[in-house]
User: What shape does this take?
Amino acid sequence: MSEQVPKPEELVQIDYQPPAKPWMDVPVEFRRGTFCYAGAKKNVEYLGFPNPRDWQPMDEDWKLPPNWREIILEGMRDRLQKFRSFRLFMDICVRCGACADKCHFYLGSGDPKNMPVLRAELIRSIYRRYFTWTGRLFGRLAGARDLTEDVIKEWFYYFYQCTECRRCSVFCPYGIDTAEITMIGRELLNLVGCNINWALEPAANCFRTGNHLGIQPHGFKDSIEFAIDELEDLTGVRVEVPIAKKGAEVLFIMPSADYFASPHYYTLLGYLLLFHQIGLDYTVSPYASEGGNFGLFISHEMMKRLNDKIYREAKRLKVKWLLGGECGHMWRVLHQYMDTMNGPADFLEVPKSPITGTVFEHAKSTKMIHICEFTADLIRHGKIKLDPSRNDHWVVTYHDSCNTSRAMGLLEEPRYILRNVCRNFYEMPENTIREQTFCCGSGSGLGTDENLEARLRGGLPRANAVKYVRDRYGVNLLACICAIDKATLPTLLEYWCPGVEVAGVHELVGNALVVDGEKERTTDLRGQPLRRKEVTANA
Amino acid sequence: MHAWTALITIIILAVAGYVGGQLSATRVLIGTIVPYVAIGIFLVGIAWRVIAWARSPVPFRIPTTCGQQKSLPWIKRARFDSPFTPGETIVRMLLEVLLFRSLFRNTRAELRREGPRLLYEEEKWLWLGALVFHWSMLVVLLRHLRFFREPTPAIVLLLQRIDGFFQIGAPVVYWTGVTMLAALGYLLWRRLKIPQVRYVSLFTDYFALYLLMAIAGSGIWLRYFTKTDIVGVKQLTLGLMTFTPVVPTTVAPLFFMHLFLVSVLLAYFPFSKLVHMPGIFLSPTRNLPNNSRAVRHINPWNYPVKVHTYEEWEEEFRDKLIAAGLPLDKESGNHV
Amino acid sequence: MRDRVWITLGLIVFLVGITYPIWFNNAAGVRAEAPVLRKPVKGPNCVAPLEYMRASHMELLTAWRDEVVRQGNRRFVAFDGRTYTMSLSKTCLDCHDNRAEFCDRCHSYAGVSPYCWDCHVDPRQARTVRAWAGRPQAEGWAR
Assistant: This one.
């Protein structure tokens, strides 16, 4: 952790009192620790985005193209015509303020421009000035202002301080979704070359190699093989993982972090054990080796460009249907965008569990189901044997990731699994879970180091709810189904409530799963000793 | 600042209406031309606004799911917070439009620095204030039909009877008039009182509130205090409706203020945040079913994009694929 | 685009609904005419000026009721110095002798349902009742 970050006691001194000056007169301040670095020139060039250059947000001169204002306004005009959401959300907000204290960044920073309503006003004020006659005529009285370079800087700061988590949209009486506004805002910023590297580099990697981490095919294979060896050590069972096997029934797509980062990796072990035990005819692909989609955090077009690989590979490998791993924003794209963007997937079949015979009618068009839907179905039908006592060393809580809860509605499936694979499960307070879940504060491409303070602030509401169950029930593990959570929550929890680890749901499944021919397990998938050993010994 | 400018604007408009109601020339203007122009602007403006929204397509199906999706049959799903069928979606919309479902979820967060601890309390006052205001206004509007129809429809008489159930005073006190003004007062109070809401408030936010309060207030004043010749009022409204405008001299100036402010509201409506009224019906995070994986949504402007095809990818990583012993589609590459 | 059909339909329903008073009144041939009232039988003088009576008679009547019922005082000195007995049936209706052609005309025109008649009886109707009183089946009704 960087030394610049203040201590929790200091960070929590949050002043919610708005400044005396009207927000239009408060210039944005690029304070270290609160913003992300600019997209590197090579990535901008590789993706074919406009205005590649070396620059940083702290610079005075952002080297915008000479006609940047026309570009932005033309971009707005174009998007107002393409997205009803955008046009509508520009017009109908009544500024009731219901959204204000729903944003984790506002709760953690007290910066009024982090209130969803003001975040949207940043762009609405420009809309009024250039696209409505009241704004043209009455200017500031009508809530309009001129488009200046300072506005672009402000947009950059605040649209890259929104994780597109949609929590505000749950509470908005008109369903105004700041994620929509942020997405459009970022698209506009990209038009003049103002983007962040933490979103751009994964996208560039993914476009080229097939995954965000830039792992090339041989690296992919090595990772999988390493996992196979590891599993053999832990369980005595050697699983087989077919890579790019044509004619397999199922193509399994996971976020690349699952095979390259920790603690995601233990989730991968869980998947592989499960597939082995049920004898699933599946394959993984080094080409479509990424479920996540950082294009979502850049532009609709980039999202489509990256998402293309999934159906393309499914078609090439002649699989029947698709299964997706644990990842939050990946599922926003798969659930709400993929079929529209790159469908119809008429070369696939409606997903049907070969083990239980369940036909997943709710995915009959997209032909892709979530691993939690798949596993919950297996458990329900008693097709796998579970020994939940193997997770007794964990006192578990469950964190809904933003996208699976508010852009999909996957709430009960993971809970059902958890109740079956572990014996100590406690929910966080109800205003912080399910559709009201709090973001980790690092989603939408913001999970990097240079903006750590902003992340810790944004993560305060989530961490605070975890702290509540830690103190009350002794929770020591946060289970989740999101790769970004797994990557960023450990830092966050270590800062705000030490002593709670982060795991994927399928890591716990892997722990509990009784595999044919396995040796007696003495450790969990992390190699930590099981508590059960001692208990049974005493008994 | 905006609160004051808006107040001054409303006072000017109200005084203009009142003074205008006393001079015979301006009475005719306020009693005939102004309402016609206002109604025209309102109707055309709303149509124009809705058509502008409708012209922009909904490229993606993006409902905010506020409950369990439909997946496995044994998992209880939230039919109206995460609707799957069009019917369920209609119910969700009705809950939003009639009962302000989303606003009902409202909470208030409070940070206790010791701990630290974030607390979330139920906060239903905004919901209640908004609901009371909107429903009261609807009833008030419907009650006004007695001035717009001859004979007065029985349903309006029934509504009046219910609204004036307690028979307090003569004329009978209609509750909705009082509750509408009280709710508006609350909405104004919270806008001024809560620092965050005050900070985001624009001129239009105060203006709309003051305008509605002035209309409700002048209406109440006319009914219970100043009083006027309501037969003359009805003659005036019926004259407007039947395109044979008459402006009876027996009608009090305060009525012309009331009418003028209503005209201002009508003309202002399509160009203000008040368009949330038609807008809510079009909100794509609410009016679409959460069935994205079952029914394909069509984006009319879906265009081909530059992608990295498998063939290109295989070509780029050929050596590495071979070295790793991974299968290839094309055994020999296009090496030069 | 299917949703545009729905939006257009919704817009039309809204516009038709909101303009209902316009097209309905015109279709029904309603004219903006004030109701014609029966002239008072006892000449031009009233207990208060016409202007006041038109807008505020209900206030006067309520004041009379309170005065009579609570204070037992029935004497009313009018603006022009004349004295009257405070009584709806005996004073008001004595002069405005036809409820249907006087009171009800405006009340029904303006959609007003006063609760005077919850207790009071229209004298004309009462006369009829008295005439009927000899008939056995009407006895209870006349009370």
